[in-house]
Amino acid sequence: MEKIRVLIVDDSAFMRKLISDFLSEHPEIEVIGSARNGEDAVKKFREMRPDVITLDVEMPKLNGLDVLKIIMQERPLPVVMLSSTTKEGADTTLQAIQAGAVDFVAKPSGSISIDLHKVKTELIQKVLSASKANLSKINSQHEPRTVRKQLSIAIEPEKKPAEALYNRRFSQESKKIVCIGTSTGGPRALQQVLTSLPKDICVPVLVVQHMPPGFTKSLASRLNSLSEITVKEAEDGELLQKGTAYIAPGGFHLEVKSVGPALAISLSQSPPRNGHRPSVDVMFESVSTIQNYSKIAVIMTGMGADGSKGLVELKKNGMVKAIAESQDTSIVFGMPKAAIATNMVDEVANVDHIADTIMNYI
Prior knowledge:
Layout (H helix, E strand, L loop, with lengths): L3 E6 L3 H12 L4 E7 L2 H11 L3 E5 L7 H11 L4 E5 L3 H13 L3 E4 L13 H11 L4 H5 L5 H4 L3 E3 L20 E8 L3 H9 L10 E5 L6 H11 L3 E4 L10 E4 L5 E7 L2 E7 L11 H9 L4 E7 L8 H9 L2 E7 L8 H8 L5 E3 L1 H11 L1
Parallel strand pairs: 1-2, 1-3, 3-4, 4-5, 7-8, 7-13, 8-10, 9-10, 13-14, 14-15
Antiparallel strand pairs: 6-15, 11-12
């Protein structure tokens, strides 16, 4: 089996050695070289033609963002950013994802992280998944709106005898709530969807994006500046408002509870589910217990299967329409594929059409 050829870029010799040692332990990864700054990175990217690059955000001469833009212009390939958890680091990381990086890993304690072993498994996993990412999606231009209507595919799963249980009538008149789950590639997908929702949308939107603490606030702030609706990081105890999207803070599960006639956010640090906190399954399961609401569940790009078990619970317990992002536009088609495999998804749509699909159900 051909190994994934990785180039490591970091201005710290200590970090280059640490990252190289971690990645080299995996039988599917071969570290083919390292670069000490941005100029060196561009030179070696051109010479060595790696499959994946790990790229430090903060570097002298050319920073990680500058290097990334050159790579994406010349020969796009999967890039995993390594970032500090400072606000500046988080903001730059989100710019890097917008510029084409597949994913990022947060250094536990700044630019030189002696405790990098804490994210060793995450780093290896993200390099492996980046090597399989759908780069054509990252570099494609948005399709014209006139084409979007053709991109949504209503799917008719094989009917099972017990499936009548899951097909309760979805009421256009009832109160509604939208819940969205995503992971790798999610910030770009969320930008596409949330910026396409109208200001007068009459429902609250809950979002779980797999991200560590410190990054979700920057994500919410960025999306809020670009969207007609309000986008914010969720706070424990706040009442849900129409026209607002609430992003689960990194490190916290997002759940919903009834407070009289209203709904309120409940944040918890109960154990991670399948390695994730926040978890899409936890959010979906919580929303499934809310009575007298129709629910619209959306699962977009991401690795793994988070959200599929929660989707089954949603369908068991109420009126639900489920939307999965298509393989064509998913940067990683893990989570949507797992959701579709449950036979509980009502519609598969390209990311450009997901906002339209949500509005059709609302």
